[in-house]
Amino acid sequence: MIETVSVSSSLPWIGLILGYGVLTHGIIFLNDGLYWDGWVVDLWQQNEDKHSMRRFYSEVGMPNLYFEHWILGRLPRRQMAYRAISLASILIIAVFVFMTVVYTNAFNPLQAAIIALLLLSYPAYAVTFDGIVSLQYTFKIALFYMGCFFAVTTINNFDAVNIAVFTASLILFLAAFHANSLLVYFGGFLLFYAWLFHARSPLEIVTYEYAKLLSLAILPIAYWAMKETWAPRHGYYKNYNRIRITPFSILKVGLQAFRYGIDVPMIKPVLEAVWSKNSFLIFASIFLGSLAFDFNKDLMAIPTLDAIKVLAAGYTLLFLGAAPFMLVGQGSAEGGWASKNFMLFHLPYALVVFGWLQLVPHSLGIVLIPVILLANTLYIVKIHLLYIAVSVKDKALIRWLAANAQLGSASVIKIRDSHWIEYPFERETAMFRPAYLSCMVKRIWSGSRILAVLDTWDSSRGRPLTAGEIEQALDETTIRYSFAPQVQPGPQYLVTIKAPIGTFEAVKFEKGSDERGDVNPLKQPAMARMALEYLYLKWFSPNRLNGFFDQHFSISASKL
């Protein structure tokens, strides 16, 4: 029979995992910004535009997301609901990975807890910052790991209750497969399940387990066949993310995934913690690691051969998680929107780090664990604060536009962003696509048909858009049906946002080039302070927010 460990005896470890998860990711609740596709979905919900939402998710082949967003959109505090789901999803992933590992006795509870904590500390995944977008990714991963746990608990059990539990796991997998990269990653769980029952099941029930394994094996194939039959991509997205077998592209995207998905997250947060010269936190982490070594050195250690197996498992899962993006040629970057490609890297990262720590001198490996966890927590919170600072600029712009009603009669509003704030690992043109900016404006004047674009095109910088350029921008939104076939008649305006001349930031910082990379280290403290000041005023002194916006942003408009 399979050797299992009672999960109930591991409740203190689950408490530790949840506590660390809330400490690291609890700031999700405070981040009220909208990013990327969140602008589009939130506008549809605000205007109860079910037609546009249904059409979009039908064209991208994910009609389920229409129903999910429609349900959440009916809640009185929908944005808080999205944030709660985003935070709960990342916690569920860690807890169910821990319970699966403990139940199957793959590791002892202490080792499983370390893996779960490392999983929670994965610093390269930015999609949780926008709860609306996270529903498409993080929530589906949580369903997947729940399905994994339910499935393994039925091994060697074949009564009515366990049949129901196994059926529930199949339903969870089907729901999770709406994040299509899980179809490949599922192969890793399939191998794990096959190893469990083949190595530990008695002969008399192997037939039943083979039937269950067969049902698991055909599940992703059946899902894909049903999806391509009943909900294929069509319209603008007909050829979106089609498989392209190009060896150079596959190799390039694969190397990017390994570099930005594993190597950089393993090293960069620790280096930043060291460079910050915060000696108290560093020495406190080392002290905690030393205590852990004194009391738990035998429980933490695994044989060298097992450590190599853990590394192999981690890198194999990493490859499975990256394979779909390699096949469609979708490159990876250190953060930003491209970090959605790392949606399945939490567990591979945890296994890889845990495996490498077992191969260094054992005392050093144990001491480093608290250092890594603390450094990653600080890094994740810092990135959250930088994104909040970006959203503060968006709120300042929305507030100013709403106070200048004459702009509601415009046909085109061009935004010239001259403020020193930078976007973490993202190009300005990616953060503010025509669709996102137009949705931002439509949130203010819901009945308008205004096209909003960045004033960055070399051919049109500082001048009105021509009719052909307006058509091009409308097509680039990919959802022109959500605005109107044409923009409304009216003048075109140039809106400029910059830092007030009298502030120290305006003198010290210049607007950086439009490159995807980390925020200038000199700007990070100022952006973090701005975010913290905004959060304080929002919660404790909202009447002072207008003065806060005026202090940090100077916005003006001129007719083109």
Structure description:
This protein is mainly α and 560 residues long. It has helices at residues 11-25, 38-46, 50-59, 63-73, 78-103, 109-120, 131-134, 138-152, 160-176, 182-200, 206-230, 247-275, 279-300, 304-328, 346-359, 362-403, 428-431, 434-444, 467-477, 504-508, 524-540, 545-552; strands spanning 412-417, 451-454, 492-498, 554-559. It is built from 22 helices and four strands. The protein has a four-stranded mixed beta sheet. Helix 16 (362-403) crosses helix 21. The longest helix has 42 residues, at 362-403. The N and C termini lie far apart (77 Å).
**In whole angstroms, how far apart are the ends?**
77 Å
What does the main sheet amount to?
Answer: 4 strands, mixed
Uncertain ranges: 1-5
Query: What string, H for helix and E for strand, traces the elements in order?
Result: HHHHHHHHHHHHHHHHEHHEHEHHHE
> How much of the residues is beta strand, in percent?
under 5%
Q: Label the overall shape.
A: globular
Radius of gyration of CA atoms, rounded to a whole number: 25 Å
Number of helical regions: 22
Quick overview:
The chain has 560 residues and is mainly alpha-helical. It has helices spanning 11-25, 38-46, 50-59, 63-73, 78-103, 109-120, 131-134, 138-152, 160-176, 182-200, 206-230, 247-275, 279-300, 304-328, 346-359, 362-403, 428-431, 434-444, 467-477, 504-508, 524-540, 545-552; strands spanning 412-417, 451-454, 492-498, 554-559.
List the defining traits of the structure above.
mainly alpha; single chain
Give the topology.
Elements: H1 11-25, H2 38-46, H3 50-59, H4 63-73, H5 78-103, H6 109-120, H7 131-134, H8 138-152, H9 160-176, H10 182-200, H11 206-230, H12 247-275, H13 279-300, H14 304-328, H15 346-359, H16 362-403, E1 412-417, H17 428-431, H18 434-444, E2 451-454, H19 467-477, E3 492-498, H20 504-508, H21 524-540, H22 545-552, E4 554-559
Parallel strand pairs: 1-2, 1-3
Antiparallel strand pairs: 3-4
